[in-house]
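Please decode residue identities from the backbone states below.
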């Protein structure tokens, strides 16, 4: 250990630092020492008591030793992944504030005091916004004009976070806010998870514009794989958009289609027959099933992952298992009654040709949907057993 590193270790042992700069690292020998040095200098210049924690993710190029020599506290995390490295770094950080920073010198390290100032002013999470200050060659055009805008827009649509650059790697957060986020992901989707969870637990989120510079060393990103992982994470954590809305739309369209065929309603200048009725039935059944899956996903998220959904809580207070059973049973009985009408007509015609195709499809659909609602209600109730009274 160098004299400088020994001094830093003595400082961090003396008391709790105010700021912990956490840097994930995987084979960043070209830049890690400078990144650590600049971070310490930025803290010192601003009069901030702080430490730099480097979470090494299995480097083989000597990065950990270079980081230690530059004055950082190095934490080894053998489990690969951007999120894994940060989780290890957060566990080791002791500062009241945690500033997140990449090791490739793409971010303006001298802006660390600006992030701290925003936390001092009342923010819980401070996000950097790179999109208006990207230096030439710093970001691939696909990321700049397609990937980041689409993913950030999707995140804001689903979760209403209001952030302008959801995947900026330079951000700061109060350390005592981290437990409430319950962060779990191990890959690049960790960046999205932090913003989503911060929004769901009502943390005060602020953006500040920063510059973005060309990186030092080789990029570890996989453009399409990591983009898909972010999008997949957004969809999985928004059952409303993944299940509930598509299911409701399919179900409504399917049911209206069946009614139009039954009533011989002219649509687009013509009436529709049996094949359209079958399509309407299919859409209704699939829509009901997808909607039920969405409700189950919401239930799981709330009871097992500490999610919060106001509309779901209101519905839970008003609706019980018996309501679902009654609704499912009623729909099934209506379907059975229509089926009975068809049988009576068939018997009345002397067991001849069955000419009630449209009504038969409608009756069968109601029976299937009613059974779906009936047993889905039981499943929701079973998931609700986890609820804390």
């Amino acid at each position: 250990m160098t004299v400088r590193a020994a001094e830093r270790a003595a400082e961090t042992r003396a008391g709790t630092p105010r700021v912990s700069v956490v840097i994930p690292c995987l084979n960043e020998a070209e830049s890690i020492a400078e990144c650590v040095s600049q971070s310490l200098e930025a803290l010192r210049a601003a009069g901030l008591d702080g430490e730099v924690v480097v979470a090494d993710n299995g480097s083989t190029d000597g990065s950990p030793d270079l980081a230690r020599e530059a004055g950082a506290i190095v934490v080894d995390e053998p489990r690969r992944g951007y999120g894994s490295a940060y989780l290890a770094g957060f566990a080791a950080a002791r500062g009241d504030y945690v500033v997140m920073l990449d090791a490739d010198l793409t971010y303006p390290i001298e802006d660390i005091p600006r992030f701290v100032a925003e936390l001092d002013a009342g923010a819980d999470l401070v996000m950097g916004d790179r999109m208006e200050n990207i230096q030439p060659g710093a970001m691939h055009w696909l990321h700049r004009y397609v990937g980041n805008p689409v993913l950030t827009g999707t995140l804001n649509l689903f979760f209403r976070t209001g952030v302008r650059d959801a995947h900026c790697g330079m951000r700061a957060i109060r350390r005592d806010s981290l437990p409430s986020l319950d962060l779990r992901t191990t890959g690049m989707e960790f960046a999205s998870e932090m913003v989503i969870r911060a929004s769901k637990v009502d943390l005060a989120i602020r953006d500040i514009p920063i510059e973005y510079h060309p990186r030092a060393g080789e990029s570890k990103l996989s453009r399409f794989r990591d983009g898909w992982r972010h999008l997949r994470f957004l969809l999985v954590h928004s059952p409303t958009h993944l299940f509930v809305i598509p299911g409701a739309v399919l179900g409504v369209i399917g049911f209206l289609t069946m009614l139009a065929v039954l009533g011989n309603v002219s649509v687009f200048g013509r009436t529709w027959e049996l094949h359209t009725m079958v399509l309407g039935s299919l859409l209704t059944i699939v829509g009901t099933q997808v909607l039920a899956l969405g409700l189950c996903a919401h239930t799981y998220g709330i009871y097992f992952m500490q999610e919060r959904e106001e509309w779901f809580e209101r519905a839970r207070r008003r609706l019980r298992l018996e309501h679902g059973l009654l609704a499912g049973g009623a729909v099934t009985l209506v379907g059975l009654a229509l089926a009975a009408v068809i049988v009576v007509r068939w018997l009345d015609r002397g067991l001849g040709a069955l000419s009630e195709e449209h009504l038969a499809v409608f009756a069968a659909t109601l029976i299937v949907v009613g059974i779906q609602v009936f047993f889905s209600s039981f499943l929701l109730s079973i998931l609700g057993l986890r609820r804390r009274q």
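Observation: The chain has 14 helices and seven strands.
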